[in-house]
């Protein structure tokens, strides 16, 4: 378990994390989201002791990180894996040597190193690339090597800093599946820093929303998406829909669909109100353990009240954006 209590940090007098209280349970896949500069990466780096903090407590499996000596901190960090957007592989070393690297760094006395490297490579499904150099691999394959390198030390926690941000959607999906498998089969707690809402929806059971160094919300990811979506408004539009024409006279609203309810809502809305509206974005999202969806429509302000009346009358869940 990772417990963060009233943690604050400044950089050059600027407060970048302010009174953060957060608990990440063993086995969670926890998403940390927020706009650029919100403090996500700094918080992630505090968790593995790469970054110090000014006040508060950070306790990982009953170990108070801020009280560790340098030697103890080094040992502690060997039990936490980390992967990055840019993979950070050694370009002149083979896949095998890259995975071996942390064992050398931490002067590990692990037995059967060769067998262990082959095991982690099999887990990330890259056994056939063992003697290749990073430049001979695709982005997704490089991230798999980075994951294997993180796993070689048998970590209890894996930290992912924008690990899929540089990848195509299909490749992202396969990396997310791999992270889920690692969480499920090895029981590794995963903390994911991302600006991609689809990543949080796809794999995270919990999430924390950071804004200007403060924690705006924390809890069950699906509940935050469905019950308090306004908290995520800052990110909407970056990924879910593109709306270049900012027509002031049009109002956007979101219709929530839970478990297949209101499948026919758009056709009913069009036929029964006669209002012409635009579908901006729509889709079902697969949350870690269920499916729910949202439809975003745009309507001229003069006709907005007819839509509002219809949705309320038919008890359809919606909100104005
Ligand atoms: N080493 C540093 N020295 C000084 N300021 C820093 C340092 N690292 C981060 N900051 C500042 O701390 C704030 C939080 O940065 P951080 O990288 O944690 O945000 P983030 O939410 O991860 O953003 P992004 O999504 O862009 O990576 C920013 O204002 C950043 O400029």
From TrEMBL:
<keyword id="KW-1003">Cell membrane</keyword>
<dbReference type="InterPro" id="IPR003593">
    <property type="entry name" value="AAA+_ATPase"/>
</dbReference>
<dbReference type="InterPro" id="IPR050086">
    <property type="entry name" value="MetN_ABC_transporter-like"/>
</dbReference>
<feature type="domain" description="ABC transporter">
    <location>
        <begin position="2"/>
        <end position="237"/>
    </location>
</feature>
<dbReference type="Pfam" id="PF00005">
    <property type="entry name" value="ABC_tran"/>
</dbReference>
<dbReference type="InterPro" id="IPR003439">
    <property type="entry name" value="ABC_transporter-like_ATP-bd"/>
</dbReference>
<dbReference type="InterPro" id="IPR017871">
    <property type="entry name" value="ABC_transporter-like_CS"/>
</dbReference>
<dbReference type="Pfam" id="PF09383">
    <property type="entry name" value="NIL"/>
</dbReference>
<keyword id="KW-0813">Transport</keyword>
<keyword id="KW-0029">Amino-acid transport</keyword>
<protein>
    <submittedName>
        <fullName>D-methionine transport system ATP-binding protein</fullName>
    </submittedName>
</protein>
<dbReference type="InterPro" id="IPR045865">
    <property type="entry name" value="ACT-like_dom_sf"/>
</dbReference>
<keyword id="KW-0547">Nucleotide-binding</keyword>
<keyword id="KW-0067">ATP-binding</keyword>
<dbReference type="GO" id="GO:0005524">
    <property type="term" value="F:ATP binding"/>
</dbReference>
<keyword id="KW-0472">Membrane</keyword>
<dbReference type="InterPro" id="IPR027417">
    <property type="entry name" value="P-loop_NTPase"/>
</dbReference>
<dbReference type="InterPro" id="IPR018449">
    <property type="entry name" value="NIL_domain"/>
</dbReference>
<keyword id="KW-1278">Translocase</keyword>
